[in-house]
Every structure is written in structure tokens, then in C-alpha cells.
Amino acid sequence: MDQEGASQSTSTSTEPVRSRWSPKPEQILILESIFNSGIVNPPKDETVRIRKMLEKFGAVGDANVFYWFQNRRSRSRRRQRQLQAATAAPATSGGDQHMTAMSMHQYPYSNSEIDLGFGSCINSSANYFLNGTTSSSQVSSFLLGLSSSSGVCETNGMEN
Amino acid sequence: MDQEGASQSTSTSTEPVRSRWSPKPEQILILESIFNSGIVNPPKDETVRIRKMLEKFGAVGDANVFYWFQNRRSRSRRRQRQLQAATAAPATSGGDQHMTAMSMHQYPYSNSEIDLGFGSCINSSANYFLNGTTSSSQVSSFLLGLSSSSGVCETNGMEN
DNA sequence: CTAATATGAATGAAGG
DNA sequence: CCTTCATTCATATTAG
């Protein structure tokens, strides 16, 4: 990720200028249009094409486009799942509802995705873990131990 | 693929029940060291040995190790190709530019490799600012092209 | 300023 | 090996 694009306009100072890609409104519009047109998982060539198109409105890389579609898909599915879960599981019993409908298609020419109305859903999932300081004292032993490797052991049969 | 069940918070219910394995920093260090030592595709025996080693710093299964190396290999190759493509195709100008087949697959580089001390001299600082007016004719053209089925409008209540 | 949310990016896990 | 999904991390933006 080396495409700088986030140009902050006089915000809090001390910005390392290492921002992530921020799609421009036009880019978002294009991406959403493509997504809503049925192309929810564009192949490589399509991704490149889309990137080229987006590049006219700001710096963007193939990876950004790829990430965008991945996140979009995931997000849509999660929203759907939560919505369905809330709809199909009001409060009748303490049972657990299982959903094992995963229709994976390589190329979604036949739009199997339901049209979603985004923008009015509030999702609350705030959870984060803290990373404790771990002492890496024993690791040094291992590192020192494997300093004797010189042969590149590749192509081995590990079929289970 | 299914080599063994990944050990995950067994007994002693004092863990926040992690869904997937999260390698500890020491484990990552060991794994990376091994990988950089040339062992990029360890056989079954080696995998087991590595797992035993890693287990000293946290619960881990053979499958986790296997997956880790697999993903690591894939990621490395991907970075290679992506980097090569980026080096040979510095194009971020506003206008029509023909680019050769840029084979990009998935996410780009991320981790800091131990060796490999050269940096890419790509300087794509061609950042164009669109003035506040979001009236881009090109976007409109594109949108008009794919207006077919789904509503492209957010917060829409398509009835009738 | 802090908390909550939105979203780009990274990675473990599987499927083919 | 390849692609893809699900989960998590990190950061930007916004609300309080």
C-alpha cells in the first residue's frame, strides 16, 4: 500500500502521512454501481479494468479494488445474516438457529445476491483485545539454534 | 488439508474463546526464522516438530503450522509478482494509458522481511485533487451505462 | 479529548 | 497451487 491519497485538510497535527486509501466519492459511486450491477466478484482482468477506471479520479491500486470488493461482499453477507437471524429468531425458545446456506459461485452472472438497502443499518460490534507484553527470552534460543541452515529444502512430498 | 484439529483453548475456561489461532509474537518469530532459513515447505515430520516447538509459547496445532506455511508461501510469491508489476508499470496519469497485463492477484506486501534490503523506487505521487464539485461527467456516463436492474440509490425504498 | 462507528487492510482457514 | 470466506486489526471519521 503505497498509494497516498488521504489528504487531510487541517486536522489534528502530528500525522505521519501514512494513511490508507480513501476512495473518492466518484470512485465509491463507480464501485457501488458495479457491485449493484451484479459484479460482486470481478476476476483479475475485470479488477484491473476497474482500477484503471478509478485511477482517473485518484490514485488507486489493484489491491485496493480487490479489497473493496472483498469487504463489500463480506459486509453484505454479514448484514444479511444478521438481518435474517433477527427476523427468523424473534424469541420463542432458547434454541440455536443454524444457517448453512453457502452458495459459492465462481462468477455471479446470475445475480444471486439480494438487493440490499444499505445506509440505514446500525451495527454495534465493538470488541478489541489487548496485546500483553510478552517476553521473548526463550525465542532467542531457538533462533540461535537454527542458524545452521544452509540447504534450501524445497519440493518435498507431504501429501497426506 | 485437515491434518489435525487446531488446539484451541482447551480446558481452563479462562480464555476469551478465540475462534481462530492467533500466533504469539514469539511463534511468529520462530516461524519466520524457519521460513527465511529456507524451509518454506516443511514435510509432515518437520511440521510436527515445528508445532512442538511453537507449543511452548502457546496452543497450536499441526494444521495451524501447515496453514501458516502455505499462506506464507503464497503471500511471498504474490508480493514478488506484485512488486515486479509495480516496478515495470508506473502509470498514474490522468488520461488514457495502455498498460500491459498487470498480473495481480490479491493483497500486496505487508510484512517486513528480514533480508531483502532493496526498496522499490516507485514514486507515484501523482495526486490530483478534484475540486469540490463532484460533477464528473465520466462517472455519469458510466452510471448511465449500467442502469438496468438494481437500484443504485442508497436509502431507497423501492416499492411498486 | 474520549468513545463509538465505518471501512481499508491483514491473515487464518478452507475449498477446489 | 490457486482462489475465496470469515475474522480480526488498524485507522479515519464522526458523535458525545
UniProtKB/TrEMBL annotation, chains A, B:
<keyword id="KW-0804">Transcription</keyword>
<comment type="similarity">
    <text>Belongs to the WUS homeobox family.</text>
</comment>
<feature type="domain" description="Homeobox">
    <location>
        <begin position="14"/>
        <end position="79"/>
    </location>
</feature>
<protein>
    <submittedName>
        <fullName>WUSCHEL-related homeobox 12-like</fullName>
    </submittedName>
</protein>
<feature type="region of interest" description="Disordered">
    <location>
        <begin position="1"/>
        <end position="22"/>
    </location>
</feature>
<keyword id="KW-0539">Nucleus</keyword>
<keyword id="KW-0805">Transcription regulation</keyword>
<feature type="compositionally biased region" description="Polar residues">
    <location>
        <begin position="1"/>
        <end position="16"/>
    </location>
</feature>
<feature type="DNA-binding region" description="Homeobox">
    <location>
        <begin position="16"/>
        <end position="80"/>
    </location>
</feature>
<keyword id="KW-0217">Developmental protein</keyword>
<keyword id="KW-0371">Homeobox</keyword>
<keyword id="KW-0238">DNA-binding</keyword>
<feature type="region of interest" description="Disordered">
    <location>
        <begin position="77"/>
        <end position="98"/>
    </location>
</feature>
